[in-house]
Amino acid sequence: MTRQIKIGNLKIGGRAPIVIQSMTKTDTKDASATIRQIKELESAGCELVRLAVKDFQSANAIKKIREGITIPLVADIHFDYRLAIAAIENGADKIRLNPGNIHKEEQVMEVARLAKKRRIPIRVGLNSGSIGLPSASLTTSRSGQTRLKANHLVKVALDYIKILEKAKFYDIIVSLKASDVMTTIEACRKFSKSSRYPLHLGVTAAGPIAEGLVKSSLGIGILLSEGIGDTIRVSLTGHPREEVIAAKNILQALGLRRFGPEIISCPTCGRCQVDLIKIVNEFEKSYTLYAKRHTLKTFPRIAIMGCEVNGPGEAKEADIGIAFGKGSGIIFKRGRIIKKVKEKDAIKEILRNTLYTLRKTNN
Question: Which residues of 306-336 are buried (b: 16+ CB within 10 A; e: fewer)?
Fold first, then answer.
């Protein structure tokens, strides 16, 4: 249980749902382009968005950007504490400070005093690349190196928090990110044992989409499964929309939040006698179009299985399921067989039963 922090109307920590955030990849000075990207991210499910404030033009653009969006806005500050002051004055809802390049006590306290006055939280955002992790001896084991680096991240975070607390500032969120998965996990575990401030999770510089998804899912997923973490950002070299989709999938896979139906489908093998890949893809596409037109509060569990080995069992356990044989399949509804359908009619029938269930449970 962590301390709960408010960012606008958004709550992070305590018993609040895990919050999804991302970061714009536009030039912040281009307010129109930044607003467009933020709206796109919000449409994908982003609940908190961060943008880079690299100069005073960017800080001043926050005012226009803030007026054009509805989700809370985080100003990402490095090197110059005065940019944090300008960002707050222009309407930022939260400030991220990097202890690696803004660390003079009086400067940090000046930001904290203004943030306290405006009731704006601060994230103490540590990245392994900017704080300089200690070098281990060549004879140190891999686990020993991980502990050494994790301990350093935690120490820097706790020392920085003391400066903020000295200014009587307590609306603090912390992130301890490394590009190494195990260092990130170890640092967050250690920090969570010594502090009740909420944690922002992520594996920094996780890489291109395929590799980054794996590293982020492991790092973020392991910590969330242990009850650690209050908000997440999946860091990918790609469009930020992919970060939001990945974050939603991580949370849904762990059963922490639901954003759509859980589709259970087999990978297919030589036993499969229907074009299951096509069926699953077309069902998902049709369902997505329906979901965009309707506000849904509950989501079903759908099983689309290719053969008789695991098919009937998975189909019975789902809200709606189909187990295929040769050219046809048996549809189950909450464990009960309701009909046999040909392969060509399968998508229509699965969708029809799914939509019926959705309408019934969402009314």
Answer: bbeeebbebbbebbbbbbbbeebbbbbbeee
The CA distance from 24 to 75, in Å, is: 11
> d(Cα 263, Cα 14) in Å, to the nearest integer?
30
pTM of the model: 0.90
Alpha helices in the chain (DSSP H): 31-44, 56-68, 81-89, 105-118, 128-131, 142-166, 181-194, 209-225, 240-253, 276-293, 311-317, 346-362
Angstrom distances, CA of residue 137 to CA of 141, 148, 264:
9, 11, 47
φ, ψ of residue 185 in degrees (nearest 5):
-60, -50
Which residue has 């569990």 as its token pair? 301
Torsion of CA 239, 245, 250, 251, to 10 degrees: 130
Give the rounded distance of the alpha carbon of 270 from its chain centre: 36
| Cβ-Cβ contacts under 8 Å for 117 (sequence gap 6 or more) | none
C-beta of residue 188 within 8 angstroms of C-beta of residue 151: no
Q: Which two tokens stand for residue 318?
A: 């789902």
Q: What is the pLDDT of residues 246-289, one digit of tens each?
A: 999 999 999 999 888 889 999 999 999 999 999 999 988 888 78
Q: What confidence score (pLDDT) does residue 253 get?
A: 94
Residue type, 120: I
Q: Are 294 and 305 in contact (CB under 8 A)?
A: no
Q: CA 219 to CA 290: how far, in whole Å?
A: 33
Q: Hey, what are 192's tokens?
A: 């969570």
Report the candidate in 198, 201, 158 with the shortest Cα–Cα distance to residue 181: 201
Distance CA 154, CA 195 (A): 10
Is residue 183 over pLDDT 80?
yes
Using one digit for the tens of pLDDT, what is the confidence trace for 66-87? Answer: 999 999 999 999 999 999 999 9
Residue 342, phi then psi, degrees to nearest 5: -75, 160
Q: How far apart are CA 322 and CA 345, in angstroms?
A: 12
